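Session log. Operator J.P. requested a structure for one protein chain; no other inputs attached. Running the standard single-chain path with token output.
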Amino acid sequence: MKEETELARLRIAAVRRGLTDEGFVDEKSYALALRFLEGDFGRVDRLVEELGSLTPRVVVIGAMGISAFHKLYPDTPVVFTGIAADPIALGWVQSYARPGGMLTGNVMNAVGGEETMAQKRLGFFRELVPDLKRLGVIGPAAGPLATKEKDALHKAAGQFGFEVLHYDIKTADDLEGAFASGLRDDVSGFYISGEPLLFGNLARVMTLVTGAKKPTFGAYPEWGRASLLMSYSTDPLEGYRNAGAYAAKILKGTKPSELPVLQASKFALVINQKTAKSLGIIVSPTLSALADEVIE
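Structure written below.
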């Protein structure tokens, strides 16, 4: 296991805060066994087996490996977080209010689903790029979240009169080619899917975003803080804190089936003013006032 990244460190700290909120004292009343994918999703099965062999009392999983772990270790409680997909459609829970099994947790989408979120992001982006003619979408074609994002953007494209071009990526090695194709097609800007493959390769994506010199938007606050022109989403770290609190409740005897799946209720608009200036984009005072964070 490589040294944890800063993002992983923040997530672990958030889980610990959730445990502390429920009265668990670090290193005295619990111990964490940590595993990181480090952007390589081919390692999921191996890490799942490693964690399962430790016979944990509860497992917190962010984004990838949830189905794999539950399939191999169906009797171990799992708290999921960091996902923007429907856990009912994925077969993880029976309902949000009554999960009904060994899985529970929280999701980053709110009532109304990812379609509403994608349209909201696009609305902010069009205020920054009003002459949007052609939008390049970077993400896996078959991903459950990417499919919903793409459908929402295509629906908006028909309404507002711009074209959507999708650039499929199956591994992180496809990123360079996807951006290059978008530039050849002279897209007005890029949308970065919220799929885990993109989030797990944050640094690589941001290097390509900077090199493309095109206005780019996406989901997570970390992306807006890094170099995307803007982002709009719930804060994933709040989800990890809630996951830690749920893990503590399970350790104290609450069954996962008794803990409702939490949906996001607080969202953050991040505008990167530094990126806007480099692209010659003027952020209106109205939009700046709406932003939860403006990165100078």
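Operator note: The CA atoms of residues 103 and 234 lie 22 Å apart.
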